[in-house]
Specification:
The chain has 153 residues and is mainly α. The chain has helices spanning 45-54, 60-66, 69-82, 89-101, 106-112; strands at 23-26, 114-116, 123-127. The chain is elongated, with a radius of gyration of 23 Å.
Length: 153
C-alpha cells in the first residue's frame, strides 16, 4: 500500500527525482495481437474470457514489456472467483490491489505513471515532462521592515 495522493501528470513540480521518470503514453486502442499463453493451471471458460479481454487493453502493452503474465493471470483467477455470489471481502480487496498494481484502475494508472494517447499509436517511452517557469525564491520577495524606534538608517 502506498501513501499520499497519486502523481498528477499535469503537475508542474520541479526538482523531484520521481517526476524525472516521466509518464508513459499507452495506445488508446489497446494492445494488438493474441494474448500470451495462459501460465497457470487449466483455466475456466470465464478465466479465458477475462484473459482475452485484459490482454486487449492499453495497459497490456506494459504488462508484456515487463513480463507480467503471472500477475495478470492471478488477477484474472481472483476476479473470476470474486464474481461468485457471496465471495469474501478479502478476495475483493485482493482484486482491487491487483487492479491498482496492474494499472486497471484510475489510481493504478496514475501510480504507474501511465496515460492514454489521444488515439495515436503506442509510445512505450517516457513522455517528456513540462518544466515550471522559473520563479524568484520566497526569500527574494521579503523585505526588511524597521522595528519600532528604528529609523531604518
Amino acid at each position: 500500500m502506498t501513501s499520499g495522493p497519486p502523481p498528477d501528470p499535469n503537475a508542474l513540480r520541479r526538482d523531484r527525482a520521481s517526476d524525472k521518470a516521466g509518464w508513459i503514453t499507452l495506445p488508446a486502442e489497446g494492445r494488438t495481437g493474441e494474448p500470451p499463453v495462459w501460465p497457470l493451471t487449466e483455466p475456466t471458460r470465464r478465466e479465458e474470457d477475462l484473459w482475452d479481454d485484459l490482454w486487449a487493453r492499453p495497459q497490456a502493452v506494459m504488462w508484456e514489456k515487463l513480463g507480467q503474465e503471472y500477475e495478470v493471470a492471478m488477477c484474472v483467477r481472483m476476479l473470476a472467483r470474486a464474481e461468485a455470489p457471496k465471495s469474501s471481502t478479502e478476495l475483493l480487496k485482493g482484486v482491487k490491489q491487483f487492479f491498482d498494481s496492474l494499472g486497471l484502475s484510475t489510481v493504478g494508472m496514475l501510480r504507474n505513471r501511465w496515460r492514454l494517447s489521444d488515439g495515436g499509436t503506442a509510445d512505450p517511452k517516457p513522455a517528456t515532462t513540462r518544466r515550471a517557469p522559473a520563479r524568484k525564491s520566497s526569500r527574494s520577495r521579503l523585505k526588511v521592515v524597521p522595528s519600532d524606534g528604528d529609523t531604518g538608517t
